[in-house]
Design goal:
73 residues; rod-shaped
């Protein structure tokens, strides 16, 4: 899941939890909204944590020079 998916789940969850007053038989839409918001928050935390780790690991650069001069010459 990406950053957009986490934000989408947060928005949909907030709408279901706070704005929807109608009901579906056998489904508590408020609880579904809270579950969506929790999943969205978890998704955002994971995306940010894994993105930070990937950025740190990719920042190491090794440069090897070949001047054409043999060693010890």
């Amino acid at each position: 899941m990406g950053l957009g998916t986490g934000i989408f789940l947060l928005v949909v969850g907030a709408i279901l939890a706070f704005a929807v007053r109608d009901g579906v038989s056998g489904v508590d839409l408020t609880a579904v909204g809270w579950i969506c918001m929790g999943a969205g928050a978890l998704s955002l935390v994971l995306v940010l944590a894994l993105g930070r780790r990937r950025t740190r690991a990719a920042s190491t650069t090794y440069v090897e020079r070949h001047d054409g001069v043999p060693p010890g010459a």
